[in-house]
Amino acid sequence: MRRIRFTLSYDGTDFYGWQVQPGLPTIQGTVEAVLSEIEGAPVHVTASGRTDAGVHALAQVAAATISNPIPLPNLRKAMNRLLPASIRVLDAAEASLDFHPRRHALAKTYEYRIYRAEVCPPFERYYVHHHPYPLDVERMIALAPLLEGTRDYRNFAASDEKYVSGEPLVRTIFSSRLIAEPDRLRYQVRGSGFLKHMVRNIVGVLIEVGKGNLDEAGLRALLDDKDAKAGPTAPARGLFLISVEYGNGC
Questions:
Q1: What is the pLDDT of residues 119-143, one digit of tens each?
Q2: Given 26, 82, 87, 209, which is the most exposed site by the fewest CB atoms within 10 A?
Q3: Whether pLDDT at 224 is above 90
């Protein structure tokens, strides 16, 4: 048996997220169907994380165990021939049989893109959150690093049954910054891992900061008070998984 590590890039617009859902198009379901066709038997694919419906990835890491002896370059070509154009296999590599894309990940980086001009170009509409309204961008830039640190981020997580069952909610955010560019903002966050909707909830909070609805004390309360709750969740379409990092042994 072989454990294959894949680097995938995908446009999440037409998919209901990563995780398989009966009767709905998903990234995992589509990739598993293609690999199963190549293998001639069912193949299960795991990923570094479950991106939501409409979320995109520049470099998602996934893995599957197969017995087919097909050379890696040929496997990549075969998968890309069978996959829809919205999903591409950028790389395929041999991995240890115990490699797990999520458990072995050391850090992930996400980027959220906000388009600020009055008119959003039609070719951008699925890849940005269009917000042409006044924002105090300097204040957003100044407060974004407050999200860094190791703490319980439950206030920034959507409800999920696995959190109720006791899954740890502590994560480490290594860097949190907002970058201002002409007509757009880019929020970049690098962390040990992220809870459900966590990045989108952080962006929603930063937008509330920019609107003047939340000050520094309010943001600190969201971080420290376990009974507080973050504000509006930013739309999925502006979010990209940029990269996943692993140690030398993976």
A1: 999 999 999 999 999 999 999 999 9
A2: 82
A3: no
CA distances from residue 143 to 70, 72, 196 in whole angstroms, order as listed: 51, 45, 22
Query: Nearest-CA neighbor of 47 among 66, 68, 28, 69?
Result: 28
Domain of residue 73 covers: 2-95
Does residue 47 lie within any of the structural domains?
yes
- Indicate whether 157 and 114 sit together in one domain: yes
Whether 52 is a known active-site residue: answer yes
Which residues are CB-neighbours of 176 under 8 A, at least 6 positions away?
Answer: 144, 145, 146, 147, 148, 187, 188, 189, 202
Instruction: Out of 11, 14, 52, 91, pick the active-site residue.
Output: 52
Domain count, the chain: 2
User: What integer pLDDT is reported at residue 162 of this predicted model?
Assistant: 62
